[in-house]
Amino acid sequence: MISRFHFDGRLPDGGEVALPEALAHHAVRVLRLPDGAGLVLFDGHGGEVEAELVVRGKAAFARLGARRDIERESPLQVVLVQALATGDKMDWVVQKAVELGVAAVQPVQAERSVLRLAGERADKRLVHWQQVAVSACEQCGRNRIPQLRPMQPVLQWLAANRAATNFVLAPGGRVGLAQEPPPAGPVHLLVGPEGGWSEGELAAFDAAGCRRIVLGPRVLRTETAGLAALAVLQARWGDY
């Protein structure tokens, strides 16, 4: 397979561009691609560009070829509203959600979230998760980078999104996704933390008109539930 790389900046139409240091290091030093190797570059603004690697000493360039107007975005726009999870679970969720076609990821602080992030720590983690999303796009073929939205408390997020189609994953939910009608627009998929949603949060969701959804009779972990639901949504109304 030809290696794919995200180019941070607008790609011109033809000519040659210098590869950013991190990209050049990964291509030449890590993957050991030789001079003249074929590449695919995308800048996140749609489409992708065939290119040829040019190595000159310690610098690397890309000789640009034809732009291909290829899009691999799902017709169903799903925003994954994921309560913060511990360890590397959030990395896993972001990576796999991007592969499954999510439009955006909204990290939220829930009442029972063990992980607490604010200020500089939160900003650094968001930058890290955005890079996880970029790497996932490089791997899976997407040419647009899903947005990692700024972290906020879940009830603050809810106050601004009451009118949306909001599916809340919760054990004991009333119906499964198979019983839901096709959504009229974007879907928000709310996934709780390891300890689950609090009773107060569930009451707020109900009051806002959110739809409680159950994924079968088994209790799924936070890093499993959202991804399973994403796959179901794609199979029902997306591009599966």
From TrEMBL:
<dbReference type="GO" id="GO:0008168">
    <property type="term" value="F:methyltransferase activity"/>
</dbReference>
<dbReference type="GO" id="GO:0032259">
    <property type="term" value="P:methylation"/>
</dbReference>
<dbReference type="Pfam" id="PF04452">
    <property type="entry name" value="Methyltrans_RNA"/>
</dbReference>
<keyword id="KW-0963">Cytoplasm</keyword>
<dbReference type="InterPro" id="IPR046886">
    <property type="entry name" value="RsmE_MTase_dom"/>
</dbReference>
<dbReference type="InterPro" id="IPR029028">
    <property type="entry name" value="Alpha/beta_knot_MTases"/>
</dbReference>
<feature type="domain" description="Ribosomal RNA small subunit methyltransferase E methyltransferase">
    <location>
        <begin position="73"/>
        <end position="234"/>
    </location>
</feature>
<keyword id="KW-0949">S-adenosyl-L-methionine</keyword>
<keyword id="KW-0698">rRNA processing</keyword>
<dbReference type="InterPro" id="IPR006700">
    <property type="entry name" value="RsmE"/>
</dbReference>
<keyword id="KW-0489">Methyltransferase</keyword>
<feature type="domain" description="Ribosomal RNA small subunit methyltransferase E PUA-like">
    <location>
        <begin position="20"/>
        <end position="58"/>
    </location>
</feature>
<comment type="similarity">
    <text>Belongs to the RNA methyltransferase RsmE family.</text>
</comment>
<dbReference type="InterPro" id="IPR046887">
    <property type="entry name" value="RsmE_PUA-like"/>
</dbReference>
<dbReference type="InterPro" id="IPR029026">
    <property type="entry name" value="tRNA_m1G_MTases_N"/>
</dbReference>
<keyword id="KW-0808">Transferase</keyword>
<protein>
    <recommendedName>
        <fullName>Ribosomal RNA small subunit methyltransferase E</fullName>
        <ecNumber>2.1.1.193</ecNumber>
    </recommendedName>
</protein>
<dbReference type="Pfam" id="PF20260">
    <property type="entry name" value="PUA_4"/>
</dbReference>
<comment type="function">
    <text>Specifically methylates the N3 position of the uracil ring of uridine 1498 (m3U1498) in 16S rRNA. Acts on the fully assembled 30S ribosomal subunit.</text>
</comment>
<dbReference type="InterPro" id="IPR015947">
    <property type="entry name" value="PUA-like_sf"/>
</dbReference>
